From TrEMBL:
<dbReference type="InterPro" id="IPR010982">
    <property type="entry name" value="Lambda_DNA-bd_dom_sf"/>
</dbReference>
<dbReference type="GO" id="GO:0003677">
    <property type="term" value="F:DNA binding"/>
</dbReference>
<dbReference type="Pfam" id="PF01381">
    <property type="entry name" value="HTH_3"/>
</dbReference>
<dbReference type="InterPro" id="IPR001387">
    <property type="entry name" value="Cro/C1-type_HTH"/>
</dbReference>
<feature type="domain" description="HTH cro/C1-type">
    <location>
        <begin position="8"/>
        <end position="63"/>
    </location>
</feature>
<protein>
    <submittedName>
        <fullName>XRE family transcriptional regulator</fullName>
    </submittedName>
</protein>
Amino acid sequence: MSNFGQQLRQIRQQQGYGLNEFAKELGVSPAYLSNLETGKTQTIQLDILSKLQEQLHLSVNENVPVDDQFIFRLDRLKRLLAELHCSNPRVAEYLVAMAEQGIDLINPAKGSGI
């Protein structure tokens, strides 16, 4: 986790965020963010990881279990589609329909049923 923390600090600083400012954007205390960056905190909640990825354009760490990565990506995709639906519902509907059609093609027995 300390390697992750070091990378997090480096990217945060490269993008011009101060510790206090970035902690506020993430909704965590500066102490928590500092502990995360120094490796003193060994756990991170998926919602905080999601915010980190969004704010700093990070990719999910290879050390995160595959199931957690998939759930993280689904949660992020759901949020992004909901935001897109607010600004451009036709495009959001199109993307969802394409995903559903693709799943139906690969696994027609289970179909979307929608």
